[in-house]
Hints:
Elements: E1 2-5, E2 14-17, H1 27-32, H2 35-46, E3 52-53, E4 61-65, E5 69-75, E6 82-88, E7 91-98, H3 101-114, H4 118-124, E8 128-130, H5 134-138, H6 142-152, H7 159-169, H8 172-175, E9 178-182, E10 185-189, E11 202-207, E12 210-214, E13 220-224, H9 226-235, H10 249-254
Helix pairs in contact: 2-3, 7-9
Amino acid sequence: MRIVVSGTGQSNQEHLTLAKEIPAFYPDLLECGGLANAVRAAFARLGSPLRVTEPASPIVYVRVQSKTAFSQIYIGAEKRRFVFDLWRHGVSLANGATPEILEMARAIDEWITTGRTTSDLASAFPFVVASEDAAAYERGEAVEFRWQKYLVSDHWLDSELTTFAAAAAAEPRLRQLFPFTSMFTFCFSRCTGFPFTKDTPTVRSRGSGVYEVFSASGQSLGRGTAAEAAALVVAALPPDCGPAVAGTADDLAGA
Length: 255
């Protein structure tokens, strides 16, 4: 498995192969008995309350999680690098890579326990790089940020779905939902994090300006122009379908 990270906080990207076993250039991990034990020791040195789990995986990897945030930590197979991502409310907001396990642990601890913004974290730790949409998510503007991607940029959707996106965006009840695509299908979610909700209609282009709308269970609700399809989606929304909220479908189910 290969992963691309901005490992130094600069514009160039590193292509890293993730390790399936611990190479010899991680003597500290070998001495501790594995990545999980080494990360636990690093957090202990910091006095951090974070707990480390080791999910079953074909690659060397551990996970650190709180109620709303988590980080996944990997190691490079060809060079010493601790590679990690930073998630909050079901959204990957930053990633990083460093050869220093204690600095990595310090960054993750700051991220999870203090709730620092990604821009603040990247300023404090140059090996952390925020995603392009992190600031919008942290300002509570994820829904509009995603709509603008679909409406303004021509490389996010094919031309047919771009036309439908414009029609959907003109419907206030759809504009408040989080738009996303899956297998050439335009979808709407009541939350902004993954996994998304699956209880709203979806739309597929049938070519020549015709769109087909499907219920959440997959039943066809009809075909029409972009505007007609958007109206069909609105008519089939679940009751009390309000603005999309930060979090995941699992969070909403447990609310």
